[in-house]
Amino acid sequence: MKMKRYILAVGLAAIIAVAVLAQAGIGIKSIGYGDDGNGNHEKWKRMVYRHEKMEHMKMMRARNMARIVHRNLLSMDREEGALYYSNGIFYVDDTPLYVGDTWWLNHTIRSDYDGDGNYETVWNELNGLIGSHVVVNGIYKNGTLVASHINGMFLRIPIMATFITINGTLEKINGSYFVDGYHIIIPNRIARSDYDGDGVLERMRVEMDGLVGQEVKIDGYILNENIKPLHINGIAI
Ligand SMILES: [Ca+2]
Ligand SMILES: [Ca+2]
């Protein structure tokens, strides 16, 4: 059981790694193909190939680990009992729960947790469950159950992350995007909106390139100095 918990903890780190790295687009495009006329061009190519292969394997391992953790979220830690609320914290019996930060609590939720037929904010859904018997799954962290599911319904990836808003000049350094020193993780896909306002829907990175040097407002979740953005200039990611 101990081993299993350890593996799942590593897997949770992998979920974060996947969330952050998968969308950062691991690559070593900043490494040039030097050629000094002594066959070093081939050497470079082999090094780059080996590096890319290693990075790819790391990514695949992290993805597999994330899959295992997602499959096992219901068999990790759990609390069962009456839900109550006191001084800003939800509890099951005497165990405090972490159900997300203020932004998340005010967010309209994906499931009708309290079964009243309405999709409400997380806060209202949880309030609708106060006094009722609930099963909360998640992962214990310093005596708090960081919730992943309520009554079998997925709530969130059980990570303590805080929503923040930053303003500043968008910079591009070695292929990565930064605002005010924070690394902005950009999904590796076609943009759903025209962020740079050039009338064309491009890849997310091309949209970002169109904003480099401009003042931008970004909000999202901060994870280890990286921001997983939810909005850029008020436009959803
Ligand atoms: Ca509801
Ligand atoms: Ca565009």
Which molecules are bound besides the chains?
calcium ion
Inertia-based shape: globular
Structural class computed from helices and strand pairing: alpha+beta
Low-confidence region ranges: 20-34
Key features?
237 residues; five-stranded mixed β-barrel; 3 domains; binds calcium ion; alpha+beta; five-stranded mixed barrel; globular
Description:
This protein has 237 residues and is of the alpha+beta class. Helices cover 30% and strands 31% of the residues. The strands form 2 sheets. A 5-stranded mixed β-barrel has the order 1-2-3-5-4. The chain has a 5-stranded mixed barrel with strand order 7-8-9-11-10. A hairpin with a 2-residue loop joins strand 2 and strand 3. Helix 1 packs across helix 2 (40-72). The protein starts with a helix and ends with a strand. One calcium ion binds at residues 194, 196, 198, 200, 202, 207, 210.
